[in-house]
Amino acid sequence: MDSTEWAKKFELRLNQLSPDMWAAIALLEQEGFRVDSGNKSGTGWFLTAHDRNQRRGSIKLQSDGTKIDFTVAG
Predict the structure, then answer these.
(1) Is the distance from CB of 37 to CB of 50 less than 8 angstroms?
(2) 63 by DSSP, 3-state: which?
(3) In this predicted structure, what is the pLDDT of residue 65?
(4) Which of 7, 13, 35, 51 could cysteine-pair with 56, CB 3.0–4.6 Å?
């Protein structure tokens, strides 16, 4: 599976979650990512993570409390 196909499937899985930071962290860890940093505020949260196996690079998740936005950083 190429990284674009993986990213689309992962984004679908993320959007099946409520926009909960802890659920997102659990899903990232299941997928082989390690969370580098994150922050939670009254209006939302963000996380950055990298692939422990170095195949997919880094990703960033951001939520405004209603949805999770997903960005592949390379």
Answers:
(1) no
(2) strand
(3) 85
(4) 51
How many angstroms separate the CA atoms of 6 and 10, rounded?
A: 6
> Total domain count for the chain?
1
- pTM of the predicted structure, to 2 decimals: 0.82
Q: Are 24 and 38 in contact (CB under 8 A)?
A: no
| DSSP helix/strand/coil, 53 | coil
CA dihedral 28, 18, 11, 50 (to 10 degrees): -20
Q: Which helix (H) or strand (E) holds 59?
A: strand 58-63
Instruction: Give the pair of three-digit tokens for residue 74.
Output: 């390379």
